[in-house]
Structure formats: structure tokens, C-alpha cells
Amino acid sequence: MLVPDNLFFTKDHEWAKIEGDTATIGITDFAQGSLGNITFIDLPKIGQGLKQSGLCATVESVKAASDVYSPLSGEVVKVNEELADHPELVNKSPYESGWFAVIKINNLKEKDALMDAKKYKEYAENLSK
Amino acid sequence: MQLIFEKSRSGRLGFRLPESDVYVFESLPQKYCRKEEARLPEVSELDVVRHFSGLSRLNFSVDTNFYPLGSCTMKYNPKFMEKAASLEGFSLLHPLIPQLSGGGILAQGSLEVLYHMDKLLSEITGMAAFTMQPLAGAHGELTGVMLISAYHKANGSLKKHIIIPDSSHGTNPASAAIAGYDVIVIPTDKEGYLDVQAYKKALSKDTAAVMLTCPDTLGLFNPKIKEIADLAHSAGALMYYDGANLNAIMGKCRPGDIGFDVVHLNLHKTFGTPHGGGGPGAGPVGVSSKLVDFLPISRVMRRDDNTYFLDYQNKKTIGYVAPFYGNFLVILKAYAYILALGKEGLIEVSENAVLSANYCLSRLKDYFEVAFDKICMHECVLSASRQVKYGVHALDISKYLIDKGFHPPTIYFPLIIKEAMMIEPTETESKETLDKFIEVMIEAAKLSKKNPQALNLAPEIMPIKRLDETKAAREPDLRWKP
Amino acid sequence: MNYIPHTEKDRQEMLKVIGVKSVNELFKDIPASLRPKSFNIPQGKSEFEVMEYLMELSQRNAVSLTNFIGGGFYDHYIPAAVDALASRPEFYTAYTPYQPECSQGWLQAIYEYQTVICELTGLDISNASLYDGGTALYEAAMMAIRLTGRKKIIVDSGVSLIYRAMLYTYTSNLAIEFIETPVVHGQSCREDIYKYLDDKTAAVIVQNPNFFGAIDDFSDIVKEAHKKGALAIASVYPVSLGILKSPGETGFDVATGEGQSLGIPLSFGGPYLGFIAVKKEHMRQMPGRIVGATVDQDGKRGFVLTLQAREQHIRRERATSNICSNEALCALRALIYTCLLGKNGLKDLANLNYQKAEFAKSIFDKIPGVKVKRSSPTFNEFTVELPKNADAVASSMINKGFACGFPLGRFYKGLDNYLLVAVTEKRTKEEIVKLAESLEAELCS
Predict the structure, then answer these.
(1) Nearest residue of B to residue A83, measured between CA atoms
(2) pLDDT of residue B23
(3) Which run of H or of E encompasses C366?
(4) Which of A111, B297, C117, C139 is most solvent-facing, going by the fewest CB within 10 Å?
(5) What's the pLDDT tens digit per position in B144-155?
(6) Nearest to C315 among A61, A62, A65 (CB)
(7) B324 and B378: one domain?
(8) Whole-angstrom Cα distance, residue C71 to residue C90?
(9) What pLDDT does C310 receive?
(10) pTM to 2 decimals?
């Protein structure tokens, strides 16, 4: 299970890469692994306001639909349009080309509610036991 | 097999229309006419007959294979019901005929069928009256929830949510949500029943209804069902009965006597009408007396002179849920079924359905995990969780069954049971058929240890092997293109 | 019981395996207090007796009238091959094709049906079918609401009153605002539609031909709807699509309709066939089952239920619809029917219907006191104004052997003298002339 060091994580297996006042968000390797082959991603729209832990996307696999919650509050400034034709990018590269959206962060303090890589790794490993 | 479109040859005809016997008039102005023609196939009648005969042979069906699909009640569909539905007096009648002044008299045969079905289904379920209009089970659910909503509105109380167990059919929460309610999901306890503590906590003055299947989707009859109903009523909520599993309890217990206020039935399950590859079915809805005034219009009523008429006078009605009187030919078939079986027959149906399910459960429980090891009703839920360690899943066992000529059980439902395999043998299958099925299931269990690959690779002898469902969903190809 | 094979010996053996003494023990979880208060169902009967009774009942329906009633449900001829093939038990006793390996026949048939619906409507995506034309229209309206996030819908009064009534029933709890716009001289009133059309409108719904039989070219309304970001939805009559401009050509986002006219008997109102087709971009909001093509492990083409994450068995309370079945057998009939007719046959059939109705109009024109409404072109159904109450006339015409049409006063206030007359390919010139003669005699009496 891949857990990059420089990211922050939620209990629902979303990640955020914080750079200045923006964050790139997506779902973790653990999440993509348990969902199986992802077939479609319903992404948020540019300009949409997201709340921390609020619904931000839905991921579909052949036999499931799962909600994705935003790790931080903010406004969507960019979405990964590649995913429309290539949802498999999330399976192949959840932290790189499989990113979901970039948001402009409202409140950087919300970061405190997220896990760092070490904590998340522990958390996810416990779940798979 | 080629698509019918791929068999098309320019100039071929499959049907001859009558020659026009009227003068040729000017054709329609061009601006109303289509420019791109519909590219329907050009094939002969024999091409069509061979094509569809060929396709039909690629299906498993009740007439050709044992079909223990849990929750679907795939019983044998007696042939005379089809004959009854093909009588021209029934099949040719235009639905608007009885809506003309004096037209009711032209449809007395069909109106009698509808009237009697209302009475028969009311008696079977212990309800006050039925509407025949809902066109399928899920449609019945939506109708039922709308009736509940109309009742609460008429009583000046706006309720907010509907309580549904986590073991329910997906249609229940979907119907509740589409009718405008929030859904509160109640977990199942260790015994396999609705968790009463969680239920009590969720129940409030905002609860519009509690939607239950009884026996539930785990195949169990909840002995506390009456208590659950009483609690709902004292909170001002109504009880909704999903009739998917009525085949277990005919003549043994009636939803109306338990205290259910709304009931939908699936005529294509309990009352033997064929499933038609996914429809048409019929989902009549029955109600307790306090809800009768809200039933959809029209209702079929009987006059003192024993003639029947359509009544549109229900002032509090929720309105129209179907264009006319329901899926009439399906209702007719179910009527024929009930008349043929009669009181004793219906009771025997449930007794033998329950007997067969318990027999399957008893013979299989040493080989598979059992969701709840107790007497079941008309279906039992096994799990392939014991086989998972060998890399064999419920899906693999299903595919193996297909190679052996059996339609698989319902798998991965109820969602709360891991690797679920839900077996509903129905009363119409002989002991020999059940034994053969059981033996193949046992074989599969043994094989999963010895040679799991054999299961993983199944089916091998069908026209196709396992399909790439990911590709189907990622690159949707939903129609032929030239 | 002839449908239950267990002998007494079977039962005893099975009970022994289960480890109980009697069948009653299997029902011990049902408390005595919950046993039926009554179960007064008549004794069962033999097949012969039930059939005799049902045959007698069927004869109490008058189906020998020469039928000129349509109203959205039409008396077309059904080729024998449709019945023969749809009666194959490998089709009708199967269930929803959950297991593709043993359901390829059904899955391929549905894929072919989806193709036919796309071809007829000129749109990109069809589902595996819905219950009927009314529920299909409701599903279309709900799609528009989800897609636009808006809650106002404009419905033209030319849409069947039955379907409008169904729309209102289903949405009565949902705070959706419906605005009905009038039909003037048989045509949708643009002025009113544009007055209400705004950036809060989810959809404009029209019907073609409309309930009065009138054909319209709705491209102007579609354009205006799109300008405001609303969807344009058309309810259509599939046989008419043999010649009429397809919804796709007009620019509609969604087309729905009643498929009964495609090889399905009138059957006193059901089972029928709802169809729905949409533009590609709305695919994910489609209700119900959809079949797709894919390949198996060996690369061989096969068919499977797909895009299931939209559906109730996965998404539960957040599904696009609560529907779980479809009307597969009716869809199969429509598929077989359209295949038999083929590309040219459907066109010829539509032309024949049009010609016969035009002929009937020309004959009706000659009846003193009868006015054929000619403000719009029609397909195979048209409106006539009678000098008397149309319901009373229709009622007396029954005694002369004619179901002469549907009195519009039943559904529309102020139209008591109007009759809606449908003429399909089944009506001969002779029958049309006789109807006109009888009607003339009736009006004189």
C-alpha cells in the first residue's frame, strides 16, 4: 500500500496535497484497491464550494458507488478532466495522474483534523487486518 | 451470434402491408418529415424467426432450468394462464372503451376480473381494499409510499422520514426517497432480526412509515413483528409491507392481521405469472381501511344488479399512477392462478415452498456458512465466506452452477451478508431436482479446496465465458452502429 | 396439487432431513395470535373449469366493434410471428439477465431493442425499457430536475391528460412547480411557453403528435428552451416516426413514449411499453436497466447489464430511479415487430396510416354539421367538431357497431362536442365510408 509522505489524509481515505493556499485532492491507494476497477467519477464543478467532510465526488465501480468527501473546505479551481475518459488513472496512479481536483483552501487550520502519512498508514493497515 | 442488424440485406422484406385502398393524398409538408431514416434491419420473416429462436436458446428459463433465484420466486408458470391471456376478448379490448358513456357495459368481463382480484387479494392479505394499477413491485412501493404521504397530509402531520432495515431490497429506500422522504436505516441484530433498540431510537413523530419485508430478506420470520408494528403505530407511523416474500406465508399469517397498513404484492412472484425476462409484472397495492379513500382512481365497483363500473369519485385520491387499470393481462393470469389453486392450494404452496427451502438449508449447512442457523421460511441465505480462503467466491460458485445447468441463486444480496447466496427453491420443484442441485453445490464446496481454479474458470461450456464488465462500464457500447 | 410435485413420501423424507416432525413446526415462529383471522378463498378448480369461466368472461367484453378510438393507444395489426416468437418460454419464463453467461439471448435482444429505439428517436442512448409512456415521461421529468438542479417544468396541454395526471401524482410530495400552457388551434402556444420559460426552468415537455392528433415542428421551442438552459422533452408515438421528424433531428434532449403500437395488443391498458432515449451527455442520469456490449475472456463479443451504479440495488436511496424491472417481454415484441417491418416497412406503415386518416378527414368533411379541425397537419388521428354532444353520439354509435372515436369532453372542459378519431392501417376504405354514413344518420336523427 502506497502512502506518500508529503500528503494529509482522512479516515475516509481521501488525501490532500497542500501547496500554499491550494490543495490537490484525491483518493488513496487503499481506497482504489478496495473499490476495484473504477469505471466513472462524478467530479465537482469548477467554482463549487466544498466543505470539509462534505460530499465532493462519487466514484463508481462495476458493482458499487462510493462517496468521496473533501478533506478540506474550499472552492474548486481545477478538476482532472482526464478522468472523464480515463477513470482507470485512479487505479493506476491514485496520487499522481489520478488526482480529482484542486481547491483554494478556505481555512488552513482544518489541516489539524487530518492524519499525516505515518498515522494514516497505521490506520489503514489496521483496517486491512 | 450476429446482431439482427448485421443480417440485414437491402431490399429484403419481413412483412407485407395491405395495399392502400384510398386515394393518394398530398404527403405531409417536408418540414414535419424526417430526413434521416431509421436504420431498421431489412430481413425476411424466416430471418427474424431463426434469429429470435436462436437467441431464445441462449437463455436459461424456468421451463428449461431450475432457477433458485432468491427473492424472485421463480416458480413454474402454468400454461393455461398464457392461454387465458391470449383470449381475444381480453387482449383486444381498448382501455378507453369503459370511459365512454355507457361503455362500461362493453367491458364487463375485464371489470369483473379486476373487481374479484381486489377482493381475493384483500382476503389473502387481510387488507381492506386493493388497487390493481401499479405496474410492478417497485411501482407498487412508490404508490404505497405516496398513499402514506397522502394520509399523513390529510391528518395535518408532515412526516419526514421512513425507517428501513439494512437488509431490505434496494427498491425500498429508492422508493421512499423518490417520494420525497429521508431514509433511516436500521441495522440487523445478531439473531438476524431488525435491531429493536436502534429501531426504537429512530422512531419519532417524524416517522412516516416503517417499510419491512416479512419474512425478511434473510428468509426469517421475525417473532417480534407485532411489537414492531405496535411501536410504529403508537408513534403515529404507518406500517408498509413489501410483499416480495408472501410466498412463504399464505394462509399462515396475513399482513393485515399483524397491523400493516399498506401492502404491495408481486403477482409475478407469488401468483405464478411469468417474469418475462424482467417484466411485465404487476404490483397491486392493498391498504387498511383508513387509507382506502386515498387509493388511485379509477376503482372498479359493483352495482346492486351485479354489473361493474369504474368509479372516479374518490375525492381524496392520490390520482393516477398508471394510464389505466394496471397490467391487465398479468392480473388476469394471476386471477386464473388463484382460481385454480384455491384456498387449499395456496396454503400448500407456502407449506411446500418453506419445506423445500429448509430441506436445501439442512443439506447444505455442513458445506457452507449459514447466515443464521435456524428454521427459515421460503428461502435460505448461505455464504461462500468459508470458500474465500481458497480464492473461491459466491460468483465462482454461481458460474460453476451455470455449467451444470442450474441458474445460480441470488448472490451478494442481502448486502449485509458477505458472499451471500440466497436460495429460493419454490414449491414447484421436485425433490429430485433439489437433490441434483444440492449435490452440485456440495461438489462446488469440495472442489473449492481441491481445485479452486475449476471454479474460477467457470463457466466453460456456455456460449460465452466471463465478460469484461469493467470494459462495458468504462467504454459504454449501448447500441449497434453501422 | 398439480403444480406441487412433492408426494407424501417426499415430504416425510425431507422433514426427516430437516429434523422436524411436521410442516407445522416450520411455521413455529409465527405466533398463534398472528394466525389468519380468516382465509375465505374459494376451493380450487380444474384447468378446464377455470378456462370455461374465463372464456365466458372474455365474451362479456365487446371487442367486435369497428375501432376508431386511439387517444395514445392504437389498434394496429400484429404479425403472427410476433406472438409466436414472444411466446417462446425461453424468453417469457426467464428473469432479468443478472447472469450474462446464461442470458445472452435476452441481453442481445435488449441491446437490439435499445438500437431500434435510438434509430426511431434519432437519439444516442436508450435504456432497456420502462413500464409505460406515462411513467417514462415522469422519469424524463425527474432526469431534467436532477440534471439542471431546477424545479420548474412547463408542460404543454397537448400532452396526454393521462400522462399529465401521472406526472402530478408522482411529484406531489416534491415541491416541483408545473406550469401548463394552452393549445391554441391545435398548436402549442409559443407565447405562453416563452412567458414562463426562464433560467429556473428544468424542462419544457411537449407531445408529438399531440393529444388532438396535431403535428408540430417544435424546433423553435427546443431552441428557446436550450437558451435558458432547460431540457426539451418530447413524448412521441413510435409508428408516426416512420415519417415524422425524429426528436433527435428536432434537437430534443429526451424522447419518451408508449411503445404499445409496436406489436403489443391493447389488452385493456397493459402490459405496455415505456421507452426513453436521451442524448449521450445525459447517459448517467438514465433510469433503469441498460445493456452494453463487451468481450469475454477470449475476446468474443457478449452482452451484459451495465452502468449499474446508477441503480437502486447499488445506490439505494440515491438511485436515479426506484425501477428495478423493465417491460422486457413487451420490448421484445416491439423489437420483433420493427424487425419484421424493417426500414421501408415502418415508413410504408406510417404513410398508410397518414393516408387513411386523410381519406377519413375528406369523407367526414362532407357530413353536414361536422367540422374537421384543419389548423394543423395530423398523422393518423384528428379532431372533429360535431353539432351535438360527442359523448352521446359515441355512445349511440356503439349500437351501430362502431367505437367511432373518443369524446374529448371526457378530458377537456369546453370540448363536449369534439370527437377524436383514429384511423390505423387496419381500417378499410369501406369501414371508413360506413362509419361516415352511420354518423351522418345518427346526427340527423
Answers:
(1) B474
(2) 84
(3) none
(4) A111
(5) 999 999 999 999
(6) A65
(7) no
(8) 34
(9) 87
(10) 0.97
Interface test with A, best of C314, C316, C317, C320 (most A CBs within 10 A): C314
Q: How far apart are CA B99 and CA A6, in angstroms?
A: 73
Encode pLDDT of C161-215 as tens digits. 999 999 999 999 899 999 999 999 889 999 999 999 999 999 999 999 999 999 9
**Considering only CB atoms, which chain C residues are within 8 Å of B251?**
36, 39
* pLDDT tens track for B267-280: 999 999 999 999 99
Domain boundary among C296, C314, C338: C338
- For residues C380 and C272, membership in a common domain is answered with no
| Single-letter code of the amino acid located at C125 | I
Give the chain C residue nearest B104 (alpha carbons): C61
Cβ separation C309–A42 shorter than 8 A: no
Q: Which residues of chain B have pLDDT under 50?
A: none
Domain range enclosing C271: 80-338
Contact status of A116 with chain B (Cβ, < 8 Å): no
Which chain C residue's Cα is nearest to A38?
A: C309
Tell me what pLDDT residue B145 has.
97
Same domain? For C319 and C382 the reply is no
> Which chain B residues have a beta carbon less than 8 Å from that of A37?
470, 474
> Residue C17 — very low, low, confident or very high, per pLDDT cuts 50/70/90?
very high
Tell me if A65 and C314 make a contact (CB, 8 A cut-off): yes
Per-residue pLDDT reduced to its tens digit, C328-341 = 999 999 999 999 99
pLDDT tens-digit series, residues A87-100: 999 999 999 999 99
CATH code of the domain in which B118 resides: 3.40.640.10
- ipTM (interface predicted TM): 0.97
pLDDT of residue B25: 77
Same-domain status, B457 and B336 = no
Instruction: Please enumerate in sequence order all residues whose Cβ is within 8 A of that of C101, keeping only pairs 6 or more positions apart, or say none.
Output: B399, B402, B459, B462, B463, B464, B465, B466, B467
Last residue of some domain: B283, B314, B340? B340
Q: State the total domains in chain C.
A: 2
Q: What's B463's domain CATH number?
A: 3.90.1150.10
Same domain, B352 and B271: no
Give yes or no for a contact between B465 and B403, defined as CB atoms under 8 angstroms apart: no
Q: What does the alpha-carbon distance between residue C290 and residue C311 come to, in Å, rounded to a whole number? A: 10
pLDDT digits (tens, 9 = 90+) for C112-149: 999 999 999 999 999 999 999 999 999 999 999 999 99
Q: How far apart are CA C213 and CA A35, in angstroms?
A: 52
pLDDT at C21 over 80: yes
Together in a domain, C178 and C269: yes
Q: How many CB pairs under 8 A join A and B?
A: 15
- B325 and B387 share one domain: no
Q: CATH number of the domain that C330 lies in?
A: 3.40.640.10
- C326 shares its domain with C266: yes
> Are C230 and C199 in a shared domain?
yes
Interchain contact C284–A (C-beta under 8 A) = yes
Decide if B366 touches C, using CB distance below 8 A.
no
Confidence (pLDDT) at B249: 97
Task: Give the pLDDT score at C323.
Answer: 84
The CA distances from residue A99 to A9, A102, A114, C344, in Å, are 14, 8, 18, 51
Q: How do strand A49-50 and strand A74-79 relate by DSSP bridges?
A: antiparallel
Q: Report the pLDDT value the prediction gives residue C325, as an integer from 0 to 100.
A: 79
Of C412, C421, C439, C431, the residue nearest C384 (C-alpha) = C421
CATH of the domain at C438: 3.90.1150.10
Q: Do A63 and C284 touch (CB under 8 A)?
A: no
Tell me which residue has cell 464543478. A45
Domain that holds residue B440: 344-474
Q: In what order do the strands lie in the sheet with A38-42?
A: A38-42, A55-61, A64-69
- Quick one: pLDDT at residue C320? 86
Question: Among positive and negative, which fits the CA dihedral C238, C244, C249, C251?
Answer: negative
pLDDT at B314: 84
Q: Kindly state whether residue C9 falls inside one of the protein's structural domains.
A: no
